[in-house]
TrEMBL record:
Keywords: Hydrolase. Residues 25-168 form the KANL3/Tex30 alpha/beta hydrolase-like domain. InterPro entries: AB_hydrolase_fold, KANL3/Tex30_Abhydrolase, NSL3/Tex30. SUPFAM superfamilies: alpha/beta-Hydrolases. It comes from the Bacteria. PANTHER family: TESTIS DEVELOPMENT PROTEIN PRTD, TESTIS-EXPRESSED PROTEIN 30. The keyword Hydrolase applies. Gene3D superfamilies: alpha/beta hydrolase. This is Alpha/beta hydrolase. GO terms for molecular function: hydrolase activity.
Length: 201
């Protein structure tokens, strides 16, 4: 389905758990030049569906328009909050967990409080530009404050790896870079117990 935002239309794939009311709503999005078909996003989606959650995979307006760069953060964040508001009208009365990979993880962290999310999943959080550790984005991870943030990064990620103190949980996947070629079982094993809690709440 399409959701109109101030930055243009977003495309959303919304999956629900059959006829039952979902236990939670998980909203995931892509990195700067990628799409929602990334294997880590799909692994998390499948896990959440098994747990009885509703899952929305969001292609943000800049990607729908064919651009690879997300543009200004405030424009991107405003559009994200409009997308979340539209999805909350379709899936009501359940906890919201939001997340994404790379740039999408940054958006999910920055908007978590305004979206009233209960948790954030940050896949391949880009802690800093490659080779520039002095330009840390650590504050974006800490911004949600009392909102639980789970980070999963590859051990060889040139964008850096957050410290254990930067989030509720930081999982490092051995041998993986910024885009995962393996380790999807480890990602699911990290995320699934956490999502189970939202389903039970």
């Amino acid at each position: 389905m399409r959701i109109e935002t101030s930055a243009g239309p977003a495309e959303v794939e919304l999956d629900r758990p059959g006829r039952n009311k979902p236990g939670f709503l998980l909203v995931l999005t892509h990195g700067s030049g990628g799409g929602v078909d990334a294997k880590d996003l799909l692994a998390v989606r499948d896990s959440a569906m098994r747990l009885g959650g509703a899952v929305a995979l969001v292609t943000q307006p800049y990607r729908v328009a064919g651009r690879r760069a997300p543009g200004k953060a405030d424009v991107q964040d405003a559009a994200w909050l409009e997308i979340i508001a539209a999805l909350r009208k379709k899936v009501r009365g359940v906890p919201l967990v939001q997340g994404g990979r790379s740039n999408g993880a940054r958006v999910a962290c920055r908007t978590a409080r305004d979206a009233k999310a209960r948790g954030v999943l940050a896949l391949s959080f880009p802690l800093h530009p490659p080779g520039k550790p002095e330009k840390s984005r650590r504050e974006e991870l800490l911004a949600p404050g009392d909102i639980e943030v789970v980070v999963v990064n590859g051990a060889r990620d040139p964008f850096g790896i957050p410290d254990a103190a930067d989030a509720t949980e930081v999982r490092v996947i051995a041998g993986q870079a910024h885009s995962y070629r393996a380790g999807f079982d480890e990602i699911v094993a990290t995320v699934e117990p956490w999502l189970e809690r939202w389903s039970a709440s």
